[in-house]
């Protein structure tokens, strides 16, 4: 993250070097007290709303709990049941497909458009803002409703394709294609990673391009030998964030399928199934177990991406030393 | 980009390339904004026309959709839903701004034992999926009798649970010169007065960014609202829109899209007013929109 965020001026020295007044120890003690006072809301929040709930959720994942009666300890039964639960397996598959198709497309679009916008020209600010707009609107129910209408049977997409002689038979009502509008909706929001790519592009020293052009490197060569390696830390950052995001997608699938994940569970994203288990069937124990499996999968994938980063992420500073 | 090159030929080529570049950008922009345009025009179409008419221009101009949208759904007027959404969003903004800048100041400027550990913990929570805490949090709020009120949506924001914003403000405070704190200390200011009178006024850009993103995210939020708000009187715009969806039949399409447009108006206003800042805010912190 620091690659994209390094401020232009050097970091200020730590303020612990304050010219301590006459009583350094009293000063330190007062900092300890005031530090905890300033952190009090965050400390309470973290204990009561993050760490505490994590412990409880781990416990609940080993129980049968319906919110109204006491949790009943069932050991690993929830986790074991996942392997027999067809809808669980479907939701995991759907989510994986959604992430595997959506993330690369979204990042490719973000990078391509960032390269396009990486020039000082009139109107560039306007384009940046316009391309970023979907990232802010996309999470809303309103836009999900638009998608629902655009991709319904006899909707705008269906009719336009029929005009060209392609008959799909609707997207949102067709189990074979219902996931694609959702993928398109996430790709449509490429503006957020694009902006991060733009920040990364600005950090690449101009001299590299100048010497490359003196050496007679073409555009493709420059892109693969300079731009891409220099951008790899930002690409890595975007990749990790997008993977985490795509595993948590909820609103569009909920709104477009009317909360069912249909047709035939073809849009049953993991979050949606977890929601159904917890708040429609009141299988709170099972839903907690699902949350822990989600964390494990996200952690595993992030770890794998981090490990692979050694092979393809290039840090200029490290290389110089 | 410059048109005053020495010989006419390269200049011509440059200007041609600039035109081509603008053309590509405009086409991308139109494709991206098409769904928004579609929404806007659909809100002026009659129910059947929404599906049948592909042209963006309504055959029958139906501004009545908006009067129906203002009347609302199931006895809930638009103003009611709007007011409820506003309450949640404003509460979220105030909570986030206060609690996150307090925590950020401690992380960025104060020296005390455990700070490193706390900071690592804070960064760690950035990556945690919300699902993990979801059910126990629900149980806690249920036990406290708060399910059905706005408290589960607002109270956590006063406890700095959105680590994104803490991190954003920490980064910002770190870029402020430490001499400020030193000067304030020499003038006899303790940490509280330094925070309130020296740092807080300088935090304005970070606070504006926090405000905009907090507002838009909580305004668009659906997941926690659908879980915690059970009484129709407490429903927000997002839940109101969902009620439209539940009533089937194409007759509702026009008013539904009119209400969708009205729901997006605050987001669009924020966007238009702060678009430069929004893009920069994302750029400097890697925040997701």
From TrEMBL, chain A:
Keywords: Cell membrane, Membrane, Transmembrane, Transmembrane helix, Transport. InterPro entries: ABC_transporter_permease, MetI-like, MetI-like_sf. Residues 92-305 form the ABC transmembrane type-1 domain. Residues 7-16 have a biased composition (Pro residues). SUPFAM superfamilies: MalF N-terminal region-like (SSF160964), MetI-like (SSF161098). Pfam families: BPD_transp_1. It is found in: Cell membrane. Residues 1-25 are annotated as: Disordered. The chain crosses the membrane at residues 37-62, 98-117, 129-150, 178-201, 222-241, 284-306. Its main location: membrane. It is a multi-pass membrane protein. The keyword Transmembrane helix applies. Belongs to the binding-protein-dependent transport system permease family. PANTHER family: ABC TRANSPORTER PERMEASE PROTEIN, ABC TRANSPORTER PERMEASE PROTEIN YESP-RELATED. This is Sugar ABC transporter permease.
